[in-house]
Q: What sequence folds into this?
């Protein structure tokens, strides 16, 4: 139905009887490795079935891209003017211009006409902007004759988000969307991540993973997000490194007495989180591969506790805003009320934090009841099982 609706919108906006491709880029969920990617750390993440979708055809006007996006005014952009434009930060135009700037320096891009829609909710923590940026890069290169490789589309999308859109992200969001599947990613080498596709499944562990949209939005949290890599870099530089991923965890522990007073306490707490979380990622991947549910739950719990206590990305600066903390508490209470043992579930902040989505690792037999409980609390369709999508950015109809 979405495809037919989008084909109709494309025909209405750009004219019927045109050859068009259908391209799709998925959202993502982070499973372990909360705020580690921007420090050259490791992440376990997966593409999900929610996606951004485009019906696209080469433009009738070379050097021009035109978008008809659901819920937004039509957009036309010259691909001959790719420097950041004043007033575009936080917009689809910024994502398109930034992706085009990166990709044009590495190969052919072409103008296009496209109708877009998305069921990746904006501001909910599934990386809607990353999926959109990956999709736009796919449109730019597919219409030039060949879609760029997923890794290149991910790098272009990160460039667009960081330098044009104004979102200081690492590369996890974009890489998960572009490559697809369940991925173990290591970002130690800038611009050359090591990405391993895992043949593992939560169902083999007897677990379901559910995402609950708590109603708060990430949209106004850019400064809170930017403070996390800034604090982590302060700690890294005190250790003689540019990122914590390049620093020695043992050296950090040994230096802690001397760092107190020289480095802000929150920066030290966030560095503690990084080193602990970075070690949890390969352990979680191994536990999933072994089907070890108890170990998966223990690691997910430890990750969530570390995000709350050390990383501190649950409670924003406004003392009146504690919606995410409340959602975490309500999720745990709902599972206990259904008889779940304390070591049989985990409820954690998901993705960037401060607002948006929580992630719950739940025994499969309790998943439907838990979902009903959360929807009573947060509204219809607020909670859903996360389904891993094997494919990343792809042409559904070439």
A:
């Amino acid at each position: 139905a979405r495809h037919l609706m989008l084909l109709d919108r494309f025909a209405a906006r750009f004219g019927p009887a045109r050859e068009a491709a259908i391209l799709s880029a998925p959202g993502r969920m982070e499973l372990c490795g909360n705020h580690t990617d921007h420090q050259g750390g490791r992440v376990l993440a997966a593409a999900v079935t929610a996606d951004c979708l485009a019906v696209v055809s080469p433009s009738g006007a070379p050097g021009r891209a035109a978008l008809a996006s659901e819920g937004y005014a039509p957009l036309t952009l010259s691909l001959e003017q790719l420097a950041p434009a004043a007033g575009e930060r936080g917009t689809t135009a910024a994502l398109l211009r930034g992706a085009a700037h990166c990709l044009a320096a590495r190969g052919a891009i072409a103008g296009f006409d496209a109708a877009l829609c998305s069921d990746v909710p904006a501001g909910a923590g599934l990386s809607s902007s990353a999926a959109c940026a990956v999709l736009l890069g796919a449109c730019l290169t597919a219409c030039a004759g060949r879609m760029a490789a997923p890794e290149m589309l991910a790098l272009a999308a990160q460039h667009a988000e960081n330098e044009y859109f104004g979102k200081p992200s690492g590369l996890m969001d974009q890489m998960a969307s572009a490559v697809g599947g369940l991925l173990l990613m290591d970002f130690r080498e800038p611009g050359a991540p090591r990405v391993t596709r895992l043949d593992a499944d939560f169902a083999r562990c007897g677990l379901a993973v559910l995402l609950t949209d708590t109603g708060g939005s990430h949209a106004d949290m850019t400064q809170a997000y930017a403070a996390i890599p800034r604090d982590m870099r302060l700690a890294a530089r005190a250790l003689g490194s540019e990122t914590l991923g390049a620093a020695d965890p043992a050296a950090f522990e040994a230096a802690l007495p001397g760092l107190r007073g020289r480095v802000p306490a929150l920066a030290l707490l966030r560095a503690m989180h990084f080193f602990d979380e970075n070690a949890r990622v390969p352990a979680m991947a191994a536990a999933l591969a072994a089907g070890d549910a108890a170990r998966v739950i223990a690691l997910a719990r430890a990750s969530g506790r570390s995000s709350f206590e050390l990383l501190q990305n649950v409670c924003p600066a406004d003392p009146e805003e504690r919606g995410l903390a409340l959602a975490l508490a309500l999720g745990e209470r709902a599972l206990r009320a259904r008889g779940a043992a304390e070591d049989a579930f985990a409820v954690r902040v998901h993705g960037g934090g401060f607002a948006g989505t929580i992630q719950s690792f739940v025994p499969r037999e309790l998943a439907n009841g838990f979902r009903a409980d959360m929807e009573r609390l947060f509204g219809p369709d607020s909670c859903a099982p996360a389904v891993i999508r094997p494919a990343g950015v792809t042409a559904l109809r070439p």
Notes: The two ends are 18 Å apart (CA to CA). Residues 214 and 302 are 21 Å apart (CA to CA). The chain has eleven helices and twelve strands.
